[in-house]
Amino acid sequence: MNVARSSSYRPDFGHSFSAASAALRRNNSLAGLDPQALDKFLKYGVRRIPTALHPISETTKEGAYTLTTTKHQEVWSFLRPNFEARELDMIMSRLDHLLFGRERSSLLPS
């Protein structure tokens, strides 16, 4: 499952706290959470609109709720590049591989 893709398509807000809470409780990604942890997530992870990203408008009415972390931030956390791994692949392709240690002597040529 591509978590970044599913996060990018999720709705940004619920029309009320109860609607946002119900949607999050049905979310398969959160299904394994302890009920107390889910309650804390709803307490601190959901906030009331307006926000900088969601001002009051025709589509986002006052009293609606959104996640504290924007979906843009959430998707970026899944897609952050890992340059260290790329550099390691480059180094490993250019260096001879060495084998040290007596405990793996079966791997040494006879």
Can you tell me about this structure?
This protein is mainly alpha-helical. The protein has one domain (about 15-95). It is about 45% helix and about 5% strand. It contains five helices and three strands; from the N terminus they run H-E-H-H-E-E-H-H. The chain has helices at about 5-10, 15-25, 35-45, 70-80, 85-95; strands spanning about 15, 45-50, 65. A three-stranded antiparallel beta sheet has the order 1-3-2. Helix 1 (about 5-10) packs antiparallel against helix 4. It is elongated and about 65 Å long. The mean pLDDT is about 80.
Relevant terms:
5 helices; mainly alpha; 110 residues
In short:
InterPro entries: AB_hydrolase_fold. The chain is mostly helical.
Q: In order across it, which strands form the biggest sheet?
A: 1-3-2
The number of E-state strands comes to 3
Task: Tell me what portion of residues adopts beta-strand conformation.
Answer: 5-15%
Low-confidence stretches: none
Please, what is the average pLDDT? Answer: 78
Largest sheet: 3 strands, antiparallel
The whole-angstrom Rg is 23 Å
Helix content: 40-55%
Q: What is the ordering of alpha helices and beta strands?
A: HEHHEEHH
In total, the number of domains comes to: 1
What is the end-to-end distance?
A: 46 Å
3D shape:
elongated
Question: Helical element count?
Answer: 5
**Structural class by SSE content:** mainly alpha
